[in-house]
Amino acid sequence: MGDIKKQDFANRASYVISGMMLGDEEVSLDALANVLSWVSATDTRLYMLQNHQLRKELEESLNEFIVSGKAVSELCLVLSALFKYDNHTDMDFSILKLLKRALFPRVIRFVSGALCKSSTSNESKPRVSSEITSIYDFSRSSFQLKWRSRVSVIDCALLALVDISSVQSILFKMDDKLESDLVEDCISNSCQTFCSFVKHLRTEKEKDICFQTETQWAWQLMILSQILENYSSVNQWVGYFPDSFFIEIIETTSICLSHLAQGEVWVQSVLSSCLTIAANISHNNDSACKALHGDPLQKLYDMFCTVDKLQLSKSMTGTKACGRTIEFDFTLLLLSILTNLVERDETNRAQLGESGIDPIMNILIKCIPMDTLTTLNSENTGNLEFGWTAEFLTTSSHVCLLLGCLMRNNESNARSIQSLIPGKSVTLLVHVLKAFLSFQEDAGVLSEDIKKATMDMILEIRQIEAPSSVKCVPAKRPQDQNATTSKKRVKN
Predict the structure, then answer these.
(1) What is the dihedral of CA 185, 190, 196, 199, to 10 degrees?
(2) Rounded distance, CA 437 to CA 400, Å?
(3) Neighbours of 486 (CB within 10 A)
(4) 38 and 150: one domain?
(5) Are residues 128 and 205 in the same domain?
(6) Domain presence at residue 479
């Protein structure tokens, strides 16, 4: 398609937007359907964003649309298509930075407002124009075709926000001057909507209605979780999550984990997002960690104790594309959350120690090859060979970080760990952590922050006990270099 033709589409789109508030609604929606078809095409999307007149019309009109309630759903789908990028490297960052100063803030307010109004309104949800829904590509968001006839305002708002939140996080990492109140409003509205969904989840839990099949409601919860995961991936935005929301996330995680064996993909997706959100918002967040004192922490510990006993359905068992199992990912996320919670919080540290170190130590023991275990438990003072896979090495390093944090300023925990650890020497933790640092460095994925935090932990452990007489040979480099360790888990 020629540049002149693309530019003509952009100009015509601006006329449609400017005339929608004044013209006949049915005619306007037909015209908006044409706009959607234009912005859905990758080769014309940038021309739409670059067109000054279209940007101006959107800037001036979006607030009027949200106030009047006119074509809100349809505009959300247009904005979703406008900001949908499967590959962020395809984005023209210079254009997006321009939008950030003008159009993008208006778009964020519009979509966030649409989500807030749609989730709190008691009015019956109007049907979205079939002209629009027949053009929008729902398959890219796992929205089932059988729901197309009953697409609601909240569906459209979620579709727009999941794309926009992804772009927001990318833009912030390029330039951290994105207006904080915009992000705070988006997170606040998303959290409130999520909590209302969780109430429904609790109501339906006993009947198991929600978990028997993927419903439109379940899809909405899944998209909400992805939106919140996007926002939690930016360190500077974590403070916008209410501490009380952390408890809601743990509750939702517990419910989903108990129904994971029923095999619904949406349950797995929500569970993965919730665990990632919990890991992100608990990282260096003292108030969030304090919010989990008592029962919430116990619930999290109970989940950790059962994750390796999950009976997954055949559709969910096995490995992901990168070779990792679902159980592996969930275990790492839970270890990351528990480490965050005890790293700087003495109360959580004491409570987790009282709950029992055994399940945590058992994970480490499962990761160590049998020959090495035999040597550790004997009087042999020769060299130890750790023939780990990447998964075992990654998991064991997460366990060692957690055990190291549990021993911090807590003699009771230190004694328990020393009595349970193979070889009765916490020096084993040092060798595991050093082996993993070497692996990450060789793989070229070792960040300075992780290196410093791990080296600090090694120094702490060495102060607890002098080096053992057992000399450990560093692990051979595992074949899988995709494994990384971090107490903060972010969306890839």
Answers:
(1) -130
(2) 13
(3) 17
(4) yes
(5) no
(6) no
Torsion, CA 467, CA 468, CA 474, CA 480, rounded to 10 = -100
Domain shared by 341 and 440, yes or no: no
Look at the block and give the residue holding tokens 């070497």: 438
Q: Are residues 173 and 25 in the same domain?
A: yes
Residue 147 and residue 36 share a domain: yes
d(CA 267, CA 258) in angstroms, rounded, equals 10
Whole-angstrom distance, CA of residue 419 vs CA of residue 422: 8
Q: pLDDT value at position 449?
A: 86
Q: What pLDDT score was predicted for residue 120?
A: 65
Q: What is the pLDDT of residue 147?
A: 87
Per-residue pLDDT, 376:
67
Going from the C-alpha of 376 to that of each of 380, 398, 421, 423, 469, the distances in angstroms are 8, 20, 9, 5, 11
**Mean pLDDT per segment of 10 residues, for the chain of length 492 residues?**
70 79 67 83 73 78 75 86 67 60 77 80 65 86 85 90 84 67 86 85 60 76 93 90 93 86 79 95 94 94 82 41 66 95 96 95 85 65 62 90 95 94 86 88 87 91 64 47 47 46
Q: Indicate the SS3 state at residue 483.
A: coil
Q: What is the pLDDT of residue 292?
A: 93
Same domain, 57 and 168: yes
Q: Which domain holds residue 106?
A: 1-178
How far apart, in whole angstroms, are the C-alpha atoms of residue 168 and residue 313? 36
**Quick one: pLDDT at residue 357?**
95
The answer on 166 and 94 residing in a single domain is: yes
- Overall domain count for the chain: 3
What count of other Cβ atoms lies within 10 Å of the Cβ of residue 463?
Answer: 9
Rg of the chain on CA atoms, in Å: 26
Model pTM score: 0.84
DSSP code string of 22-34: TS-HHHHHHHHHH
- Within a domain: residue 17? yes
Q: Which residue type sits at 283?
A: H
Same-domain pairing of 348 and 376: no
